[in-house]
Design a protein that fits this description.
This protein has about 160 residues and is mostly helical. It is about 45% helix and about 5% strand. It has helices at about 5-15, 35-40, 70-75, 75-80, 100-115, 125-135, 135-140, 145-155, and strands at about 25-30, 60-65. Helix 2 links the parallel strand 1 and strand 2 (about 60-65). Helix 7 (about 135-140) crosses helix 8 (about 145-155). The protein is elongated and about 55 Å long.
Length: about 160
């Protein structure tokens, strides 16, 4: 998992290298979805599209406000990964996970996992494993931006 700049750079490279492929960008929003996320992304200095190419709303998807918010949707996956010493009550209680600020998601995960045998939540050591345990249906049910990504991929034949 690269940082935000790497992800944008890789997306731009994919657009140039594979212009007829289904190229999608999946990125942490790091902020609430105010309806202007794509516009603000297009104003970045590393947003350099190949000549004559455009990017639509159907190619850019957001993990609002941060990827780890998806973990909040599937607490059973968290319990399975972290085991008996996982403190679920330390997690933010808002069921509308895309409204939970980034800092609250991360601090809640760190508190909830601080006493587990797997150790305190660590993005590079835990995130990929946790993502593989998530129920796509459970996350999509409470994360509208996630649901839009899954619906788009399904409509494109990516089951």
């Amino acid at each position: 998992m690269g940082g935000g700049d790497d992800v944008v750079r890789d997306f731009m490279s994919a657009l140039r290298s594979h212009p007829t492929a289904l190229n999608v960008l999946l990125k942490d929003s790091d902020a609430p979805d105010d309806g202007c996320l794509l516009a603000s992304l297009k104003q970045r200095s590393d947003w350099k599209l190949p000549a004559g190419m455009t990017v639509s709303q159907d190619q850019v998807f957001w993990m609002v406000q941060i990827m780890e918010a998806w973990f909040l949707a599937d607490r059973d996956a968290l319990k399975k990964f972290y085991g008996g010493d996982f403190h679920e009550n330390s997690l933010p209680a808002n069921p509308r996970i895309e409204e939970v600020p980034k800092g609250d998601v991360l601090s809640g995960l760190k508190q909830a996992t601080s006493q587990t045998t797997a150790g305190r939540y660590h993005k590079t050591r835990h995130a990929v494993k946790l993502l593989s345990l998530l129920s796509a249906e459970t996350v999509a049910a409470v994360a509208p931006n996630c649901r839009r990504l899954f619906e788009t991929l399904k409509n494109e034949g990516c089951d």
